[in-house]
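Structure ticket #2291
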Amino acid sequence: MKTVTGYSIRDAVPDDLIQVQQIYSHYVLNEFATFEETPPTVEELVTRHAAVIEAGLPYLVACSDGRIAGYAYATFYRPRPAYRFTVEDSVYVRPGFHGRGIGSSLLKLLIQRCEQSKARQMVAVIGDRENVASIALHRKLGFDHVGILQSVGFKLGRWVDTVLMQRQLGFGDSVAPDFR
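Resolution: structure written out below.
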């Protein structure tokens, strides 16, 4: 567990997913950060959490005063084998907890943990080009803007873009990956 002023970060456990579902539901129903339109059940999030852990990737929660204040996890970017060294990050902070450095601390630790895996690239697929906070967070932690997919989602009555950002992990593409 990593302790930061006012909150601590640790690996998520299935019991955390009730609060994770509450946080995520807000974004599903009210924001463009995710393109899901119906909040998944806690049971579905338990299944997703298990898949992340089974893949050997991190799933983290930030705790403040006994509450989950935010969470972050990595998944493989795409299912095809050639993508096996590329992960995608997801970071969500509970409404009312923004501006405390929680998202930054979660993403920083997520990057560190992914660098300990075989991952060599991390991709951020950010819903909505107007999501300036997420874009700034990723830029601050070394992500480069690599593109925009225009009007690829339709949610809450409007077309929504996705911003693509990417950062190297560890040796990146400077040497071939270890296939052992």
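Closing remark: The first helix runs from residue 17 to 30.
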